[in-house]
Amino acid sequence: MKLYTLIFHDMTTITFEPIGIIHTPFLSIDNMPIQPMGAENIIATIELNKQYVEGLKDLDGFSHLTLIYFLHQVDGYQLSVTPFMDSQSHGIFATRSPKRPNAIGISTVKLISINENILTIEEADMLNGTPLLDIKPFFPQFDNRTQVKAGWLDDKWHPNNKNHRSDNRFK
Amino acid sequence: MKLYTLIFHDMTTITFEPIGIIHTPFLSIDNMPIQPMGAENIIATIELNKQYVEGLKDLDGFSHLTLIYFLHQVDGYQLSVTPFMDSQSHGIFATRSPKRPNAIGISTVKLISINENILTIEEADMLNGTPLLDIKPFFPQFDNRTQVKAGWLDDKWHPNNKNHRSDNRFK
């Protein structure tokens, strides 16, 4: 298991460690779903480090989890990107493209089952071998939003976008 | 500005840097809103590092942003916690409590305005001085979920929970 150390350059140090690894069918950054909405029926497993199993107590009552993870195959970043759903460029923070200054991804997935340290999930849209940083339970009263305006994404949205797949532009 | 270095202990190294700092009215970990829903009318600012301003292009079309940040005042973690909304303990991953193996927070806030590198936001529920790691545009088609079951949170939910404030149990 890899360890991460987070060093503040004023010499304060925090140690960061992936809490587990996500095993998915996606072996390459291209031809992947671009969001969980495109990953219906995609089953994956989280292999949680066994030392954290106690932290899963009562998680089985939740239908959805938000995963926070490293985009471990993304190299460097771009401040302007042309995302998969558009032919025009936008600022990276106005997109969900992976080539971000800090390569952190979030995905809300369905929880199917928990068996000791193995969580089976559905709608996984991340690469195989992704280092997992956190699991948060999804709670509509905290996480859903209404009366949202979503700029260029509203303009470009079409239900068929669900079927969009990635290419290798952000490799 | 502090820098973070992420070191894989197999000697692969990633450099991690906060993209900015969040300035809020909350100077102490106790007596804070426990989620953005409790932070109505709380105005805060994000001071983005100027080098990233290009990445904000077109973000002003969005009404909501999901912020990813460090819970920089949380020391260590607990696998079992009694969260603010319950008197019984749960596994840390079945709660949104801050004392997590990796002290990463997410909050979806309202975007009020952008002026060069300063973003004014509403519904900020994080401590003053929080190091920001990422800004993602909130998009209902990606981020909202229906038909959710939320275990103990469903059982304990009451609209008055909006007004819950933190204490210092996770200091």
Characterise the protein shown here.
The structure is a homodimer of 171-residue chains. The model of chain A is unreliable at 9-14 (pLDDT under 50). In chain A, the strands form three sheets. The first copy, chain A, has a six-stranded antiparallel beta barrel. Chain A has helices spanning 140-143, 151-156, and strands at 4-7, 13-16, 20-23, 43-48, 64-70, 80-81, 90-91, 104-115, 118-122, 130-137. In chain A, β1 (4-7) and β2 form a beta hairpin. Helices cover 6% and strands 32% of the residues of chain A. The first copy, chain A, has a single domain, classed as Elongation Factor Tu (Ef-tu), domain 3, CATH 2.40.30.70. Chain A has 171 residues and is mainly beta. The two termini of chain A are 24 Å apart. Chains A and B meet through β1, β5, β7, β8 and β10 of A and β1, β5, β7, β8 and β10 of B.
Q: What tags apply to this protein structure?
A:
homodimer; 171 residues; mainly beta; Elongation Factor Tu (Ef-tu), domain 3; 6-stranded antiparallel barrel; two-stranded antiparallel sheet; 10 strands; 6% helix; globular
Into how many domains do the coordinates of chain A divide? 1
Number of strands of chain A: 10
- Overall shape of chain A: it is globular
Adjacency order of strands in the biggest sheet of chain A: 3-4-9-8-5-10
How would you classify the helix and strand content of chain A by structural class?
Answer: mainly beta
Distance between the termini of chain A: 24 Å
**Low-confidence segments of chain A, ≥5 residues, pLDDT <50?**
9-14
Full CATH superfamily name of chain A: YaeB-like
For the sheet with most strands of chain A, the description reads: 6 strands, antiparallel, barrel
Task: Determine and state the CATH class of chain A.
Answer: Mainly Beta
Which percent bin holds the helix content of chain A? under 10%
What integer is the average pLDDT of chain A? 88
Greatest interface and its participating residue counts: A-B, 72 and 72 residues
Multimerization state: homodimer
- What count of helical segments of chain A does DSSP give? 2
Question: Percent of residues of chain A in beta strands?
Answer: 25-35%
What Rg of chain A is obtained from the alpha carbons, in whole angstroms? 17 Å
Briefly note the CATH topology name of chain A: Elongation Factor Tu (Ef-tu), domain 3
> Strand-and-helix sequence of chain A, N→C?
EEEEEEEEEEHH
